[in-house]
Design goal:
Blueprint lengths: L4 H12 L1 H16 L3 H6 L5 H18 L3 H8 L1 H20 L4 H29 L5 H5 L1 H23 L4 H9 L4 H7 L7 H6 L3 H12 L7 H20 L3 H7 L1 H18 L3 H13 L5 H29 L2 H24 L7 H31 L7 H30 L4 H18 L11 H7 L14 H9 L23 H6 L1
Helix pairs in contact: 1-7, 2-7, 2-9, 2-10, 2-17, 4-7, 4-21, 5-6, 5-21, 6-7, 6-10, 6-11, 7-21, 9-10, 9-18, 9-20, 13-14, 14-24, 15-16, 16-20, 16-21, 17-18, 17-21, 18-20, 19-20, 19-22
Length: 516
Amino acid sequence: MPLPPKVYTWLCGFFAALGSVTFGYDLGIIASVLPAEDFLATTGNPDATAQGLIVGCLLLGAFASNIYVGSLADHVGRRRAILFGCLVFLLGGSIQAAAQNIHYMYGGRFLAGMGIGMLAMLAPLYQAEIAHPSIRGRLTTLQQFMLGIGALIASFIGYGCFHGLSGQAQWRVPLAIQLLPAIPLAFFILLLPESPRYLAMKGRNDEALHVLARLHAHGDIHDPFVVNEYKEILAQVRVEQQETRNAWAQLFLVKSNFRRLVLGVAIQFSIQMTGVSVIQYYAPRIFESIGIDTSTTLGLQSGNSVIALIGEGLCIWFIDRLGRRGPFIWGNALSGFTFVIGTIIIALFPAETNNHNASRAFVAMTWLFNLVFSSCCGPLSWAIPVEMFNSATRAKATAITSSAAWISNFMIAQVSPIAFDHVGWKYYLVFAVCGFTNALFFWAFLPETKGIPLEELDAYFESMPLFVPASKVYVPDGQTREEELRQGKIMVPEGAETEATEIVYEKDKGAIEHIA
């Protein structure tokens, strides 16, 4: 019995997200590698700045990859670009595991970061382009869910290796394990269907139709939903080709596109200002300031990773029900609240007070923050940008928004050790304040994108006022829009030049109000 089309599509997206396991693992494992005595001896006992650079080189590599990955994905396709990202990551991970001095670590982390940066950008891009509108959120938020699985694995392996191994094995084994998820992804990614929107952009229309049928209708190219989705994709691609062949110019010179680009960059910067990376990278140091030793901290991080995975699972469950806008706003506000409480606790009860109840309360706030962040903020920071842009600009725009994630992440990795040394607990006030300012900004400027077919988002953003709460634009659920497509109601942009026998026009501008 064949799988239902949405299940098959979801499984394709799930497999493509395997690269995010390496992302989460690599981010998480470094916390247990840095304190290892043999690692410190091998790398020349690096000071706080050098340790920050070891952490940060991964992020710099990810940032560097986003300079070219958008153009690469548009040139060779989404699947081949993912394969290339896997190979780069495997090279970088191998160098880390075999490191002989700190320079090996710098180089290995940088190359691994390049691979991770490519995979983190390409997976949600591919997922968004193969998904039904009604399940697109469930596919694109898999990025963070798989990252959470990687972080969970890293926390247990890191804890086990820190206590169960000694010498070189204590840090080389956990660094070598990071290679494992990328191997099956590299071997089998080309067996998955290519993005139909990429194929349409390249003029491979017949292939695009057959891929849509494979994904959405058991291979039936005459299925009404497939036929009408195919018509919308072709019409949108033709309009984009008529307007300009330069996607970079579209991004920066078209007002609606530039607005979306700014929003995507703001989303990624805002994620770092929640404080998530400070907790992730420097948990031992943070918990030490409240009187908890490194060994206990690594155990607590395992529990924290379980909570994160629960939150990410909740996000996959509710994202296509509740939408993107509301959860993202409330998630930022609640994360700011947890930092307010955590800052008060750490300010009143530092380590020297030896107050165990305060330590437990601080851990509880950290776990609550992680639950809120993982269910409302982290997954959406990857899901929202990839579904805001048209086919011509999506890969390049997502590369830019992803680069904002990496450079802001690097900034936090570099600044945090210095801030801990100079201002101590007052550093947490930054994240307490930013949680609330993030919420206010996105309440004002972030539109809802749930359930809108990718080809209709240009018209949607053109009709949406800059101050979103003032909007009267109606947003239907994804199931409703899919049913409209099955009934033949397609929204073709004005100016699309196609044969009358191929595409039926619906040029009524009033229709935008209905679909947006």
